[in-house]
Each structure stands twice: as C-alpha cells, then as structure tokens.
C-alpha cells in the first residue's frame, strides 16, 4: 500500500536506536495516522509496526485499511541522524516480511530530494553508509609529468576523474576495501586547473595544486558542431537569506538558452528546438573565481548549514517561503477546486506545500495563460544532478493584454524560470556570481553521459538589501532616520511603537530582521488606521500595534499582496483584488505599486538619497559618481559590495540615473491613481516593462550620427554613443521620456533588450551578455599569469576564446564559409576572415559609406572599429619592418592607413 502522498509533518530516524518515528502521516481519502516502527532485528534491518493509530478520519474514507501490498512508502520525511544533522529525504522504502505477526518491515533504501540513493543496505545495520566521495589531494608533479589524485569513498565503487573545464575524462579507478582510491595520470597534453570525481550520483571537485600557469581554463573556443548560447535575463536577481519577517523577492533566477547547429560551407547555422535536443544545467566553478577557486553553488545546504530558511517547515504542512508567497498566487477557485461562494479558497501555492528543498516556486507557462499550467525548476543538489530546462518557447506572451506588452515572436529559446539559487556557495561564502554549466544533450539521452555542447554562465543573485541603513537603531549602526528620528513615533491611538534591536530580533539574520520589524511597525503606525480587509473591504485598522491586522503581527509578509510588482506577476494579470482568498488575498487595486512606494516615496528624502550629477558635469569624477551611487541607488540595491551594474557600461562610467532617471522619475509610474479609484494610467512607466532601450544611447554609427542634430544630447568623447538615455532639455521632467532611434543599426526589435533578438534569430543577450552585465566584466584578463577572472566572462571564453561581445564569426559559422558580405550582426563584415582581409576593397568601391559607418568619415577609425583580440592581418603593401603582415593588439582602432593607402579620405 501507499502510506502517504507528500504530507509528512516530521520524522525521526536514529541510527543509535533504530527507531523510525512518524508522528503524523496524512493518507489521502483515509485520514491522519500516528505511526511508530521499532527496530527488532539489527542484522536484517527489520522493524515491527509498533503503533498505527487513526487520529482523524477523512471524509469518504474506506472502513477497511489493507496491508495487502506489504509496502511502506513514505515520500517525504526529515531524518535526524546520529551526528545531529537534519536531512530531508523523499523516500524511505520498507518491504513487509511475509507472514510476520505483528507486521514487520525491512528497510531497503533511503533517497534524497533529487531521488538519489543516499543510503544502501547490505547485510547488517552498520552497513548503512552514506554514498560519499571526497578528493583528498590533487597535485601536478612537473618532474614526473604526472597528475596525482587520491581520495575516499565507498568500497569497490568506480570513480571517474575528469577535467572540469573541458569535461574530458582523464581516468577511472576502483575504490579499495578500505574505502580509499588513488590515480596517477601521466603525459597529459593539457594539465587541468581543476578536476572532478564522480561516483554514481555523488561528485567532488578540487583545484590542482602546482598546476602550471597555462593550465586549461577552457580559454579555447568550443569546436562542437552544436553551439549553446545562454544568459540570465537581468544581470542581477535579488533574494533574501531570511524570509520569516517579510521579503521583497524570492529565490528566483531565470535563464534562457538557445542551441544552434553550427553552419558549414554550404549551410547557415540553424536554431534547434526541443524535438531535437534537451538542455540541462548543473553547478560548476571557476578556478580563477575572485571569491575562491573552489566556489560552487549546488543547493541550499552548505558546510555551515542551510543558506536560507525559505524551505524551513513551520508545522509540517507549510514552509516559511510558501506562507510568504501564497498571497501572490491565484486562489484554487481559478483551478476549479473551490467554490468561493461557499468557502474561502486557499492559494494555489498551497497545493505545492510543503515546498521541497531546493525546488523553486511554481511558474505558469505564459503560453497557456490564463490557464494555469505550472512547472518548477530546482537546484542540482548535493549530487549536482543535471536539471532540465522545463519549457521551450517559440512565441512568448509578455503581458499581451496590455498596451505595453504583446507576443514576442520566434524567441526560440529553452527557458528555466524560477531556479531557486542563493548568494552563498557550498562553503558558506557569499558569492553573488555563481556559475551553472548549460549543456545541450541528445533528445532523451542521459545528460550525465552525453554533451553536445556547453557554456558556463552566471546566475547572479544578491542579498544586499540595506534597509538597516535607515531602519536599524543607531546603537545597531543605523543612522536613525527611520527609527529614533522617524516622523511618526506612535500608532494611531498614541501608543509609541517600539524599536526592535538587533539583540532581540530573531535569527539568523538578526540585524536585517530587526530592520524589517521596524519597517512593519513604522508602516503600521503610519498607515494602520486605514487598513481594510482583503475579503470584503471593511475597515480592519491597526491602531495600537496589537490588532491582528497589524503587519508586524502577520509575518511572514509579502509586500506585493498590496503593492503590485510586475516582477512577481507570474500570471501577467496586472493589479488585482482577490477576496476569494479571504484576509490573505491580494488587494492591489487599492494601493500604489511597489516601485512607486519605494522610489517615489523615498525620493523625497534628498538628504538621505543624494541626487546624481549630470554626465557632463566636470565635478562628476568616477570617485564622486561612486560616492553618490552609494548614497542613492545603492542605499537599497546591490552595489556597495555586490556589483549589480558591472561590465562594459560600468567601465564606461555609466550609472543607474544615466539610464533610468532619478528616484522620483522611476517611481512616477502607472499606479498613481489606484488609491483614489482613478485606475491605471498606462501612459506612464510600468516597472520592469518600460525601460530605456539600447537605441536610447546607441543612436547610430559615424555616418548616421553626422547627419543628426545632437545639440540636445550628451555625446561621449568618441562621438558614437550618448552618455544618458534622455535629452538635456527634459532631464528634470517628471514623466521622463527616453530617446527613441528605431532607425539605428543598434536598435533592438522588441520593447526590452532582454526579450530581443537579432542576427539569425539569436537573442541579444546570447552575444552581448545579460542586462547590467554586458561583456566584458572586469577582471577579464585570462592571461596565464592572471590571478582572478570574473565569472561572467567564462561564457565568451567558452564560445570564442576571449572575453567580450561575441564577435568571432567562427563561433557559429564554419571558417571560410562566409563571402564578402555586410550581413553580420548590426551590418558587420566577417571578422578575422582571410577572404575579407584580402578582398574588402571590392566592397569599398561599391559603397564607401558602408565602411565609413564604423571606420570613420575619413577612414580614421572609431570605437566601432576596435579589434576585440590580438590579430595578425595580411597587408597589401610592405610594412616598415619588411613584412607583409601587420599585428594589431587588442583594442587597436582600425583605420585604413594602418595597412595601406587611405581610400576613405577622398
């Protein structure tokens, strides 16, 4: 029989006593039972059914409870091991002993969340051992030209050693009867920087000691006939480490991936779909990671314990994360599972409770909306098991029922929405730039055995929410602005609201939780007298801080229950009220949006949030700009420690306000009229949906810009791009309009960069990197003697062999297959191509302006003509050194006169 579905409140399995104790087991259609099994025969691992007591009879339950099948299957329990660790398992399988009286069961296996067998049963109780693999040493012996690796694991098991960077198998060995293994690998052509050992579903990684400076970090481009392009959508996601008070965003990362069949001499590259390949992800690491060479993020567990309490169970039926985010999900009436005229309908998220460790929030398929067809993505877990992308999008609805949205045609990508990654690695160190290896595998093939191609990308995530700067008590190092100096110090009835101190706040994030509690209490003091019921709209005030309606008494709180956020509107409905769910239902049409509540409200405090200087202000030095950022956007957003804005734009001196405007302009959104009943004003900004575009700064090339009146623009010194996305004359306008140049060769084809595609249907982020993290990201030097390399650069290194925008045509095309053409991305000619090098004068003669666009009106060169890597070109004329070749260093601006007579100067 099946004893339980997926609702087991708690369990205790002690290796010392052999007791398997299941106090509460819910059995569908039967009821709730108390179960205790007692170990009676240690040599055979036999348990006797000691107690099986019906505590609650379910409606329509059968009168006879049968043990006919003899199987005891418990899908989800928490096991307290002898060493004190708390481990959650998905299966404890026990087989009944025939004709035993009382009924006996034998333990046959225990599995974890990912379905991996964590314990095996051999001949006695002591043989239950975790399948655990370690690498004790990994060392390169240069004198012997030999890689020496040794470790420990389960006896008689086979270990496979491979190069982390290339996935190349280096050797295999069998673990001895003592649980030890050793492997010496001679004569390696390429010495790995880091090796990986795999045993069944267990895996360990270790950096190679004394590896040479030129060890393999996979800086050579892939030569597979499949090309994998992938990117996180935003360049930075945020998540809390503690969800028990309130949270802004859940653990939720989004990755898009495209797979191409590489072109040949006679065929163009082709995008593949989910009928041809599968795409998976698993954690990986970078030997030059600035955080540490062995920083890897496989799941919620680290050597220091859980990384977050998001999955922590409160009562066996609900998790902290589930309770926090249930209010943003539609009620079960939307699924036909409840009649709101007869009862309060629970959140549809409750159907997924308790949320399984390392499994993300359910995400409805946008194509199926308004029908709710959800999928959940998961972390790879301690075994680092490959996880499939659960969705493939062709045409992607994006708020299609609103004027700012629509259906994005032919995105042709694999999507993994909601990967619940957190900003701590498995060693317990903060790392906001964890890596995942995105692999294409043959359709329905074993992803651990086959790889058609891969790319390593960052799934960025930060927990740097600095509410405590203003909302912590001064004795806890806050500035006191929203505590002792708060404008409102009492609730509506005059009772002072108490400032929570760090020492009294719940852990583990005590300072942040103290600040969050102070925020809720201040919110109750300011707004509590106007609180209304989500169920029927009646007044439910918080006048003294003690009422049930007070936010501080309703934790965990999710702010978007009242303050709409498009980022959390997975069903793409816009602001809604949901009285069907009772007091936990949404009431978003009565309140301003989350963005307006944060940006517009806080923007009034200019003494706390400094205005940014204009890009052309001589007082705005890089140091001053950083200081102003840290006292404006970076008061709340990641930036002081974690770099949300990084990469090419950050290196060019661009700051948040240059693109988005000031805080009040960002907060001046569509929701202003909601509290007064005036509805939505969709002529104004919609957060996450209306953003500046590439064309707002990249307005054209050397030829087209020369024809424009740029007097109201702030041009860069190079004269090719702008330094802000809006005109000087409107910089202080409340409804800040962004510059639109749809005729620019750099204009995206959709409303948002992250949803746009270009050359050959390839998504823009596949070639340029994620929003806010445009390649390259410093440090980007992958020279043999370089010590650190930003994780964001690994994708470009995998694909083309050097950091920066994908510019090497051979990434997707076969070398030599391209003719004299200007049909590359943004009208680019073939790069590093011998045919173009020798015959480009044919194009010059036909259309000189086509060349001037990037190489300058007089052939002098522009920033658009900088070489992305060291190049050796054939020169038509003999050079001063007597050679007919010319070597250009990375960053050199290519002018006509570098190699020959300047034909564009005429």
From TrEMBL:
Residues 285-304 are annotated as: Disordered. The keyword S-adenosyl-L-methionine does not apply. The keyword Nucleus does not apply. InterPro entries: Multihaem_cyt_sf, Multiheme_Cytochr_ET. Keywords: Signal. Residues 295-304 have a biased composition (Polar residues). PANTHER family: DISSIMILATORY SULFITE REDUCTASE SIRA (PTHR35038). This is Cytochrome c553. It comes from Thioploca ingrica.
């Amino acid at each position: 029989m099946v004893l339980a579905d997926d609702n087991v409140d708690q369990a205790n399995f002690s290796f010392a006593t052999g007791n398997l104790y299941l106090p509460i087991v819910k059995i569908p259609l039967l009821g709730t039972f108390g179960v205790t099994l007692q170990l009676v025969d240690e040599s055979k691992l036999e348990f006797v059914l000691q107690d099986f007591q019906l505590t609650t009879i379910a409606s329509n339950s059968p009168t006879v409870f049968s043990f006919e099948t003899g199987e005891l299957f418990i899908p989800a329990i928490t096991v307290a091991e002898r060493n004190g660790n708390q481990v959650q398992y998905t299966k404890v399988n026990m087989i009944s002993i025939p004709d035993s009286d009382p009924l006996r069961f034998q333990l046959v296996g225990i599995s974890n969340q990912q379905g991996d067998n964590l314990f095996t049963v051999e001949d006695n109780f002591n043989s239950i051992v975790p399948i655990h693999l370690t690498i004790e040493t990994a060392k390169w012996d240069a004198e012997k030209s030999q890689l020496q690796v040794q470790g420990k694991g389960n006896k008689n098991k086979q270990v496979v050693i491979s190069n982390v960077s290339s996935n190349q198998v280096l050797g295999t060995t069998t673990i001895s009867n003592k649980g030890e293994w050793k492997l010496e690998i001679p004569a390696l052509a390429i010495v790995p920087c880091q090796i990986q050992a795999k045993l069944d579903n267990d895996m360990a990684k270790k950096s190679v000691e004394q590896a040479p400076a030129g060890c393999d970090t996979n800086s050579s481009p892939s030569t597979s006939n499949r090309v994998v392009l992938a990117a996180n959508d935003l360049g930075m996601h945020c998540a809390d480490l503690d969800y028990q008070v309130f949270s802004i965003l859940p653990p939720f990362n989004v990755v898009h991936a495209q797979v191409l069949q590489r072109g040949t001499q006679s065929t163009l590259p082709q995008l593949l779909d989910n009928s041809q390949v599968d795409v998976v992800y698993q954690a990986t690491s970078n030997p030059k990671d600035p955080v540490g060479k062995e920083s890897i993020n496989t799941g919620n567990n680290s050597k220091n314990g859980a990384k977050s309490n998001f999955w922590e169970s409160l009562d066996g039926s609900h998790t902290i994360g589930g309770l926090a985010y249930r209010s943003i999900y539609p009620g079960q009436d939307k699924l036909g599972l409840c009649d709101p005229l007869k009862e309060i309908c629970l959140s549809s998220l409750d159907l997924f409770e308790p949320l399984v460790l390392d499994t993300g929030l359910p995400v409805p398929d946008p194509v199926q909306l308004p029908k709710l067809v959800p999928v959940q993505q998961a972390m790879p877990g301690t075994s680092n098991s490959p996880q499939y992308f659960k969705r493939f999008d062709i045409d992607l609805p994006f708020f299609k029922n609103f004027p700012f949205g629509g259906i994005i045609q032919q995105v042709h990508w694999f999507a993994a929405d909601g990967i619940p990654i957190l900003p701590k690695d498995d060693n317990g160190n903060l790392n906001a730039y964890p890596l995942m290896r995105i692999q294409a595998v043959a359709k329905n093939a074993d992803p651990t055995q086959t790889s058609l191609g891969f790319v390593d990308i960052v799934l960025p995530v930060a927990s740097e929410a600095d509410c405590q700067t203003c909302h912590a008590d001064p004795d806890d190092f806050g500035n006191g602005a929203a505590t002792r100096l708060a404008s409102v110090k009492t609730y509506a009835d005059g009772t002072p609201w108490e400032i929570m101190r760090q020492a009294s706040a719940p852990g583990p994030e005590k300072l942040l939780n103290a600040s969050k509690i102070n925020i809720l209490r201040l919110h109750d003091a300011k707004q509590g007298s106007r609180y209304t019921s989500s169920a029927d709209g009646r007044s439910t005030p918080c006048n003294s801080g003690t009422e049930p309606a007070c936010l501080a008494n309703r934790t965990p709180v999710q702010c978007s229950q009242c303050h709409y956020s498009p980022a959390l509107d997975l069903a793409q409905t816009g602001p809604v009220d949901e009285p069907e769910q009772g007091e936990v239902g949404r009431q978003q049409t009565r309140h301003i949006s989350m963005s307006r509540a944060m940006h517009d409200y806080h923007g009034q405090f200019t003494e706390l949030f400094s205005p940014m200087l204009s890009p052309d202000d001589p007082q705005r030095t890089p140091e001053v700009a950083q200081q102003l950022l840290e006292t404006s956007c970076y008061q709340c957003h990641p930036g002081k420690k974690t770099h949300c804005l990084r990469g090419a734009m950050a290196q060019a001196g661009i700051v948040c306000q240059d693109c988005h405007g000031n805080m009040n302009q960002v907060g001046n959104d569509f929701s202003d009229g909601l509290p007064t009943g005036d509805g939505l004003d969709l002529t104004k900004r919609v957060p996450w949906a209306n953003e500046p575009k590439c064309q707002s700064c990249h307005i054209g090339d050397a030829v087209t810009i020369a024809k424009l009146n740029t007097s109201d623009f702030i041009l860069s010194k190079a004269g090719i791009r702008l330094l802000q996305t809006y005109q000087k004359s409107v910089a202080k306008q409340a409804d800040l309009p962004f510059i639109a140049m749809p005729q620019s060769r750099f204009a995206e084809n959709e409303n948002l960069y992250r949803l746009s595609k270009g050359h050959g249907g390839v998504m823009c982020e596949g070639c340029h990197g994620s929003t806010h993290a445009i390649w390259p990201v410093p440090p980007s030097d992958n020279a043999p003697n370089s010590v650190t390399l930003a994780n964001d650069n690994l994708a470009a290194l995998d694909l083309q062999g050097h950091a920066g925008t994908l510019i090497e045509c051979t990434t997707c095309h076969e070398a030599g297959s391209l003719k004299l053409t200007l049909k590359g991305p943004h009208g680019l000619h073939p790069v590093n191509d011998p045919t173009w090098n020798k015959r480009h004068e044919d194009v010059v003669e036909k259309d000189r302006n086509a060349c001037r666009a990037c190489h300058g009106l007089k052939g002098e060169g522009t920033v658009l003509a900088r070489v992305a890597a060291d190049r050796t070109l054939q020169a038509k004329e003999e050079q001063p050194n007597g050679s007919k070749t010319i070597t250009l260093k990375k960053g050199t601006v290519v002018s006509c006169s570098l190699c020959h007579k300047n034909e564009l100067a005429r």
